[in-house]
Design goal:
This protein has 120 residues and is mostly helical. Helices cover 89% and strands 0% of the residues. The protein has one domain.
C-alpha cells in the first residue's frame, strides 16, 4: 500500500517535471531561433553592406549553422539523453516527445500569427 502511494506521488511529480522541462526546452529553442533570425534580419544594419565578396561570410554562416545545431541539440536532446542514461528510459522518451510537441505548438502559433497579420 505504501509503495503504491509513493510510486503514485513519484509518477505525478515526474509528469509535472516532464511538462515543465518540455516547456522550458521548447521555449529556449524558440528564443534561440528568434535571436538567430533577428541576426539575419538586421545583419545589413549591423554589419553594413560592403558589396565585397569575402571568404568570411561562408565561414561565419557555417560556424553559425554548427553552433545552432549544437545549441538546439542540447536544448531538445540534452536532458532526455541524461535521463535515458540514468535508467529513466520511459521518462526520457516522454520528455523528448513532449518537447517536440510543445515546439510544434509554438511553431503553429507563429504561423497563425503570420496568417492573421497577412489577413488584416
Amino acid at each position: 500500500m505504501l509503495l503504491n502511494i509513493s510510486s503514485s506521488c513519484y509518477s505525478g511529480f515526474m509528469k509535472s517535471a516532464i511538462l515543465k522541462y518540455a516547456g522550458l526546452n521548447a521555449l529556449g529553442t524558440v528564443l534561440y531561433i528568434s535571436l538567430v533570425a533577428s541576426l539575419f534580419f538586421y545583419a545589413p544594419v549591423i554589419f553594413g553592406s560592403t558589396g565585397k565578396d569575402t571568404v568570411l561570410i561562408p565561414i561565419a554562416m557555417l560556424s553559425l549553422f554548427v553552433l545552432s545545431a549544437s545549441v538546439t541539440g542540447m536544448l531538445v536532446l540534452g536532458r532526455p539523453i541524461l535521463w535515458y542514461l540514468d535508467g529513466k528510459k520511459k521518462e526520457a522518451v516522454s520528455l523528448l516527445v513532449m518537447t517536440v510537441a510543445v515546439l510544434f505548438l509554438l511553431t503553429c502559433i507563429a504561423f497563425v500569427c503570420l496568417f492573421l497579420r497577412r489577413s488584416s
